[in-house]
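Give me structure tokens for this 140-residue protein.
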Amino acid sequence: MVKIFNKKKKDVKRVLANGKIIITDFKHLSLDDFNYCVKSKEELQGQLALLSPDGKLFVNSTQEGHEVVSQIFQLLIPETKQVLNEYLKRYKKQYYYIKTFDDWAKMQADDKERTYALTMLLVPVEVRRREIEWAYYFKK
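Here you go.
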């Protein structure tokens, strides 16, 4: 068998959720694809996750927490919008004091509670991802 790619195992990208989540080292991404939200290659490589113009979620494999974020999105992507709204409603009542990712980072709780609060913050991102995907593929 001929070896076509000569990449180290950690450099290989992983695709999840039928191609909607791509976990890769951001040093392999082109700044031109994400120039709507970042201005430099260094800023691009410092991001944990970015949405592409076609609605794919790119997760930076070099950033701490990338596995948790990708796992949460794997759970959110197949859910209906109604279920996502129910999650948001339930978690907003429980974690009313968490408004931003900075609030979440300062949160003092066990891993389970922190995961639920992070899910609450990521639900609007998933809703936005779907809107971008819909606009790219279905609206003309």
